[in-house]
Structure formats: structure tokens, C-alpha cells
Amino acid sequence: MSNDLSADPVPLSRGETRGEPRQRVRGPARGLLARLDRHFFALAVLPSFLAVFLVTVLPFLAGLGLSFSSISSTHDGIFPLTLHNYSRIAGDDQAKTVLRNTFEYAGAAVLLEVVLGVLLAVLLSQKSRIMPGFRVVYLLPLTAASVVAATSWGALLNTSQGWINYWLGLLHLGQPNWLASTKLAMPSVVITELWSGVPVVALLVLAALLGAPQDPIEAAMVDGATAWQRFRYVTLPAVRPVIALAALLRVVAAFQQFALFQILTGGGPGLSTTVLNYYVYKQAFAFNNIGYGAALATLMVGLMAIPLGLLFAASRRGRA
Amino acid sequence: MTATDRGTAAVPAVAAARRRRGRRATQRSLAGSIVLWVLLGLGAVFILLPLVWMLSTAFKQPDDAFAVPPHWLSKPTGANFSELLTGEFRKYVLNSLLVSVVTTVIALAFGIPAGYAFARTRIRGGKFIQAWFVLAYVIPPVIFIIPLYIIYQHAHLLDSYTGLVLAYETGILPFTVWLMRAYMSEVPRELDEAAWIDGCSKLGALWRVVLPTVLPGITTVGLMVGLSAWGEYFGAVILTGPKTQTAPVAVNSYVGLLSSDWSKLAAAGVVVIVPALLATVFVQRGFARGLSFGAVKQ
Asked: How close does chain B come to A126, measured CA to CA in Å?
């Protein structure tokens, strides 16, 4: 069988390997329609293939190209192409701070989201008549646009007029400057990230828990395993790929977070909440250093490859 | 719960184990119950807090919105909403609606046939193509947005609907193809083959047999995609202007350094969140399943 895009690929059913003889299914026999039909699968992929090429591959390559250029408000045109943007990153102290912020933010957010999300999933998987209502409550943040999360948390955390400080005041616990202090700004943004992230992890893991076979758990019970042992050695391994996938989705989300930083803190105070994605935005669109921004964005793609590769491998493991 | 594990209580060993524990395995001790509901309650408060703030503030007089201690809905008013929906904001909501509907329709029109083809055949380089589709979803949008911005400047596509929809397809189209492939893989291929034998063309088999079967999946994917376009902020901030500004960008315009208008801000937030909320509750069963599809399923 030839497996060329233009040739007629013989459909392979799942589990069938190449080279096994297989009966060709007859479609309509003659004419233009029949010819089109024979190449149906290639034709079906073609529009998407071209569209994806147009809107992702080309811009991606263009972005790479721009990262060697010095387009900015003072310099028009992309030539000359040199490595100067990359050497500039190496000497940019701000970029070092930004990188540290990025990993602190993504690390703290994803770790807490996974731990709290798994805990919440276990709680939500308990049987009770009112549990469906609770599940709907935890579904709500999934519907909220990032702007909604950012603006309402911004109001709640407002130092003088926010509800949170009002209640803390009633309890005589002081009224911290949540978003305006170098110490508290980053943790505050992490908390708002948790608001949208923990439910995503929880609902994914919950779906896996509810779909997990009960037999091994019963068997462990017969063998006298405690509830903790059943969870640790039976349930957890069964849902591990889903946890890895959820972590993967949240790493992507944390690296791409923009609305929270722009609306809550604007990257401040100082540089304390400037993460890479926001720094790229600032360089490229606020300071007009397009070339430098593109180089930073390229660095960001490279940095994401590491955690994503590991998590992707973990989500693929333990599957039939 | 599969059919096979429902009857385990009938197995003597299991019944004995349950008796040894002195109660049915699914029951919780009183302490366990208290811990469970306290934790769930605290979590629910955390989740509901910003939504309660938004909903209550949206119905307040502008001055009451800042009151400390909070005024609990003294003199509730619908004025914020009527002002928003008769003013500029209505245009921004319609912009969001237009862009998210067009983005979704294009993504499905392209993604359904491609997903079907990937589910049913192996084409040369198919593995690479699919790997790129996953990558395109994962790669930070900023790397696409920077060159698009430069290209749009020269092609006069800044502040245009076309430009925004194209930018949204960078992440959304690969995601749609990837999920559609997962749903289509679940349809037994005997169905298509039966249709072919009955004289259907491949397109006919897709249209008459496969599509009706995966309609729930299409609905779920369509809504997920529509929601992400509806609430998208980053690309909209950079690529829209006065004409095509979307609702999420407009929401933030009620936050100023000097003159924040919290009651308007909250009302605008409610307008953005309510359609999304209704849509999500409508497909909540498919939602988590759709999220985990494609990566966990082969």
C-alpha cells in the first residue's frame, strides 16, 4: 500500500498493522465524484492543514525570524539579522528577575492546584444527596472569563474598600496592602490563579475517579487495606495519567496568564509580579521593542518544552 | 461504575470485610463527615466570593459600591444594566458574540472532516501533523501575536474582525481537530463500512452516519471553543481597536486610576459571565470528559 497524501490510503482499523491484507471496500466506481471520493481523507485534512499552516506555522517562523531583527520604534525593517537580541537577554538583569518570577509563579500555582485539586476531587467523589450541587459550584470558575476573575478579585483585595480587608479588620487581623506590597502581590495573584485552576484539576480528576473500576478497591479492602492505603496504592496510580494531564494544562495556563497581571498589578510593585509573558507584552507592545520581544517569546517556548515534555510523558504512561 | 462491580457485596469475602469494619464501606464516621463538609464549605465560600461580589455590586448605586462596611443591597437598581446595554457596551458584546460564533463555525467546519480523517486513516506525516496540532495549542500565543501584529499593520487588519478571527484560530483550530479526532475514534468503524457497502460515498458516510453519532461531542467542543473565544483577553487587547473591541476588553475600561466605576464594572462582568454560565451548565456532563479527551484516550 502506498501511503502518499495523494494516493488512496487504505483505512486501517485500530489494532491492525500495516501490511496485513485487508479487503478494499468498494465505493462508487466511476466519474469525477468517485475520484474525489477515493481521495476523500486527503481532501478532508487539506483545508485544516492549509489553515493551520497559514495561522500557526507561518507566524511561528515569522516570530523566530523577528527575534533576530531589531524592529523597534527607532528602527524600521527587519534587517540586519543578528543574534544581538539573545545576547541582550543574557545581559538583562530584569530578564533574570522576570525568569525567577515566572518559575516561582508557575511552580507555586501548579503545585498548589494539583494538590488542592486532587484533594477536592476526592471530597467531591464522596456519595451524598447534595454533592451534585457542590459539583456545580466548583464548575462555576470554568465559565468565568479571565477578566471577570481579575476584576472581581481586584475589588475584593482592594486595600481600603475591599471586602476582604473589611472582614480582616472586624477580626483585628490588620489590613494588608495585598496588591501593592512587594511581599504580598505575587501570592495574591497566585491565589486568584488558584480560583480558576483548582476547579479544572478537581473536575478532571473527579471524572477519572468516578470512572475508575471499583473491583481493585474492593479487593484491597478484602485484603484489609486502610482507607489511606487504598487511596495511595490503588486509586492514585489509576488516575495518575489524568493528574499529569491536568498539571500539563495548568502549566500552559500559568505560563500564558496575562489578564491577572495586567489588571491586578500591572507587573508591579517594581518588577515583583512581572512574569515572562507579561514582560514580552511590555517589551513588544508598550516599549515597541518588537525584535527583543520576539526573542523573549522564543525563549519562553524553549523553557516550556521541559516541564511539558515531562508531563506529557507521564500522561502517556500506564495506558493500554 | 461498570456493571461488573455492582454485585461485589454478594461476594462473601467482601461482605465479611464490610462487617469487620462494623458498617457499610460507603458510610463515613461522624468526624469524617464533619471534616468533609467543613472543607467543601470553605472551598465553596472561596469559589463563590468573587461571584457574589460581582452579582451584588452589579445591582448597587454607584456610590454604594465602595461603601465600607458593605451595604447589602440597599436601594437595588437595574440602572447599571440598562445603561450598559443601551450604550457603547452593547456594541462590544455584539462584537464578542460575532467573533466567537464565526471562530467556532470555522473551527468546526475545518476540524470535523480533519478529525474524521485522522481517526480513520494514517497519512504520510500524519504523526508530525498531529504533533504540531498539539504543539500549536500549547505554544504561548504571544509568539504568534507579535508577527501577526506586524503583518496586520501592513495588511490593515488591526482593529478588524477578520484579523481577530484569524488570530483566534491559531490556538482554537488545532485544539478542535485534536478533540474531534478523539470523539470520532470512539465511533466504531463498522458503522462507516456498513454505510459504504450500502453505497454511501465517504462524505455521505460521515454526514449520515458518523456526525449524528458524535453530535454530543460536537456540541461540547463547539461550546468549549466558543467560550474560549468569548472570554479571550490577551489577543483582543493587542489586536482590537475602537471598532472591534470585545466585551472583556471593555470590562476593564471601567477600572481607572482615578475614577473606577465598580457597579458598572460588576454589571459588565455579569453580562460577560451569564451566557457562558448557561452554556456550561447546559453541557456540564461533557465538559470534563471533553477536557481529558485526546490526551488520555488513544
From this structure: 8
For chain B, 298 residues long, give each residue's pLDDT as a single digit of tens: 444 444 555 566 666 665 655 444 456 788 888 999 999 999 999 999 999 999 999 998 888 888 777 777 667 888 899 999 998 999 999 999 999 999 999 999 999 999 999 888 887 777 788 788 888 888 899 999 999 999 999 999 999 999 999 999 999 999 999 889 888 888 888 888 899 888 888 889 899 889 988 888 898 899 889 999 999 999 999 999 999 999 999 998 887 655 678 999 999 999 999 999 888 777 766 555 555 554 444 3
| CA–CA min distance B22, chain A (Å) | 13
Nearest to B121 among A9, A208, A222 (CB): A9
Using CA atoms, how far apart are residues B27 and B18, in angstroms rounded to an integer?
Answer: 10
What is the rounded distance in angstroms from the CA atom of residue A221 to the CA atom of residue B20? 11
> DSSP 3-state assignment of A73?
coil
Give me the mean pLDDT over the A191-215 stretch. Answer: 91
Q: What is the DSSP string of B194-220?
A: HHHHTT--HHHHIIIIIHHHHHHHHHH
Write the pLDDT tens digit of every residue in A136-162: 899 899 889 999 999 999 999 998 889
SS3 labels along A14-30: CCCCCCCCCCCCCCCCC
Question: Rounded to 10 degrees, what is the CA torsion of B5, B7, B12, B16?
Answer: 70
Q: Give, in order, the Cα–Cα distances in Å from B4 to each of A96, B17, B18, B186, B274.
A: 56, 19, 19, 22, 41
Question: What is d(CA A100, CA A181) in angstroms, rounded to the nearest whole number?
Answer: 18
A48: nearest CB among B28, B110, B138: B110
Nearest to A59, CA basis, from B229, B134, B150: B150
Using the beta-carbon criterion (under 8 Å), do B167 and A300 form an inter-chain contact?
A: no
Closest-CA residue to A142 (of B263, B122, B36, B231): B231
Q: Which residue of B has its CA nearest to A59?
A: B144
Instruction: Kindly determine whether residue B111 and residue A284, on different chains, have CB atoms separated by under 8 Å.
Output: no
Q: Which of B44, B117, B291 sits opposite A45 (nearest CB)?
A: B117
Quick one: which of B143, B128, B180 has its CA closest to A56?
A: B143
Residues with Cβ within 8 Å of A226's Cβ and at least 6 positions away in sequence, in order, are none
Q: How far apart are CA A252 and CA A257, in angstroms?
A: 9
> Contacts for A252-255 with beta carbons within 8 Å, 24 or more apart?
A252/A304, A252/A308, A252/B138, A253/A193, A253/A196, A253/A197, A253/A200, A254/A105, A254/A106, A254/A109, A254/A110, A254/A193, A254/A197, A255/A102, A255/A106, A255/A300, A255/A304, A255/B140
Measured distance CA(B197)–CA(B194) in Å, rounded = 5
**Cβ–Cβ below 8 Å for B140 and A255:** yes
Taking contacts as CB-CB distances below 8 angstroms, the residues of chain B near A209 are none
Q: Count of CB atoms within 10 A of residue A3's CB?
A: 16
CA distance B60 to B63: 8
- Judged on CB neighbours under 10 Å (0-12, 13-18, 19+), B87 is exposed
